[in-house]
Amino acid sequence: MFTDLRARDIMTRNVLTVSEEWTLPELARFLTDQSISGAPVTNTDGRLVGVVSVTDVARAAGSTTARWVEPNTLYHHEGDLGADDLGSLVVELESDLTVGQIMTPVVFQVDIESSVSHVADTLVRGRIHRAFVVERGKVVGVISALDLLRGLC
User: Fold this and answer.
1) Using CA atoms, how far apart are residues 23 and 68, in angstroms rounded to an integer?
2) Nearest 10 degrees: Cα torsion 144, 90, 82, 38
3) Using DSSP, how many helices (H) and how many strands (E) does the chain show?
4) Higher pLDDT residue, 49 or 92?
5) pLDDT of residue 95
6) Which helix (H) or strand (E) holds 131?
7) Residue % of the chain over a pLDDT of 70
8) CA-CA-CA-CA torsion for 47, 118, 103, 139, nearest 10 degrees?
9) Is-contact 36 87, C-beta < 8 A?
């Protein structure tokens, strides 16, 4: 039964993360290489400390003209950037800023053993489309609203 499922049963595993210590050029290169528009941020202990997106990079670069193609399903749309703009980030930066300085420190997360009703409640109350799944403070997955809908089928 769907209500008996836990976060571990419906999450997407192998979430790519970035270090809070990376520089903006390192982050831009990573996002480009992976064709994603954002990622959870971890500290040196591997603990989840924030989330960063192409919007954060563009804001830090003083530009909203970043261009993307074919986004990964983790992040589909960021701020003023349309789906046609997502894919390979074009940002030339020489910056000492780190991911930790530009990330959003608020992260919606659920424990790996959380019930699906708790996950759904987290998404609804936060007015968000995804939450990161953690086990002992470390990211082990992500659950989107679509994952919850798939679980109903």
Assistant:
1) 20
2) 20
3) 6, 6
4) 49
5) 67
6) strand 130-135
7) 76
8) 30
9) no
Q: How many domains does the chain have?
A: 1
DSSP 38-107: EEEEE-TTSBEEEEEEHHHHHHHHT-S---B-S--TT---BTTB-GGGBSS---------BHHHHSB---
Band (pLDDT 50/70/90 cuts) for residue 35 is: confident
Q: Residue 118: give the domain boundaries.
A: 2-152
**CATH code where residue 140 lies:** 3.10.580.10
Instruction: Tell me phi and psi for residue 21, to 5 degrees.
Output: -90, -10
Does 43 score more than 70 pLDDT?
Answer: yes
Which tens digit of pLDDT belongs to each residue from 71-121? 444 444 444 444 445 444 444 555 678 999 999 998 899 999 999 999 999
Identify whether the C-beta of residue 102 lies closer than 8 Å to the C-beta of residue 56: yes
